[in-house]
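Exercise 7b. Backbone tokens:
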């Protein structure tokens, strides 16, 4: 019987190493089966008690970069989201673009009047007779969980807005008003249970597990963060973020920005090729 080896997650929790989880994460990004076998074999040979998941990730990413350069970008999406910070605005813009790609008309940072006070809502989205109030909770530290305090805060703001709407003509249409919480990290169990109880649609990196979580939304929409690009340096990616670019697709639409940054034609070609490879699984239609 193979001895169980415990590893340490980013949150500090300890769990047994799972070959199945590693294989599944590599299959999800369409890694070649032979390379998956090679990576798993390498990881298992290096595995030791108390190894951090970040070390396992680094080993796998290193092999992907050597063998399947473009696949490596898709493997690093979760980490790339953390690098969108320190402010949460790029994440809000990304969420808005995901909703826009699903057919919503979106506004970022809209002031919405409540019964007691006015509220700045991260993203307001409208489609047909449906209106979404979306709170985006961004963290730039691995292992952090969005907890119940965030859900409580969002629900209080929602009901203040709802109460104001009840006194207006045509308020019955507000039955189609929904409140969403979207975070780039995990949600605590209390945050999930409370959100489900009061009617908040909570979306985390891997929640809901059997539905449209953030990882699913990014992969289905093809709107991957520019921070997952391997062909650019960290400084270059930060420069693009400062200029308002958040997702890879925007680089294709604004290729001249790369030239203005002094990036050579050869490297620009490589960057555009990587963008094309990263987004090649994009679907023609996307729905929420």
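Sequence design result:
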């Amino acid at each position: 019987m193979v001895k169980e080896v415990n590893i340490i997650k980013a949150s500090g929790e300890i769990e047994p190493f799972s070959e199945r989880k590693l294989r599944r994460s590599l299959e999800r990004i369409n890694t070649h089966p032979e390379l998956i076998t090679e990576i798993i074999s390498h990881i298992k040979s290096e595995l030791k008690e108390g190894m951090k998941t970040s070390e396992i990730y680094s080993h796998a990413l290193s092999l992907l970069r050597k063998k399947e350069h473009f696949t490596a970008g898709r493997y690093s999406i979760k980490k790339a989201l953390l690098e969108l910070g320190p402010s949460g605005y790029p994440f809000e813009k990304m969420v808005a673009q995901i909703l826009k790609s699903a057919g919503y008309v979106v506004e970022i940072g809209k002031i919405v009047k409540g019964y007691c006070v006015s509220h700045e809502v991260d993203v307001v989205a409208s489609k047909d007779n449906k209106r979404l109030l979306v709170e985006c909770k961004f963290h730039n530290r691995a292992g952090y969980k969005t907890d119940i305090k965030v859900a409580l805060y969002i629900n209080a703001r929602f009901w203040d807005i709802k109460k104001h709407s009840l006194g207006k003509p045509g308020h019955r249409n507000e039955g189609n008003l929904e409140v969403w919480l979207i975070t780039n990290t995990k949600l605590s169990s209390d945050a999930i249970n409370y959100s489900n109880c009061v009617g908040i649609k909570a979306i985390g990196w891997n929640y809901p597990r059997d539905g449209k979580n953030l990882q699913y939304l990014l992969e289905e929409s093809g709107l991957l963060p520019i921070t997952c690009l391997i062909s650019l340096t960290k400084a270059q990616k930060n420069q693009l973020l400062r200029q308002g670019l958040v997702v890879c697709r925007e680089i294709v639409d604004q290729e001249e920005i790369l030239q203005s940054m002094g990036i050579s034609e050869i490297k620009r070609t490589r960057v555009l090729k990587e963008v094309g490879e990263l987004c090649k699984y994009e679907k023609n239609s996307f729905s929420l």
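Instructor comment: Residues 227 and 234 are 8 Å apart (CA to CA). Residues 80-288 form a domain with the Trna Endonuclease; Chain: A, domain 1 fold (CATH 3.40.1350.10).
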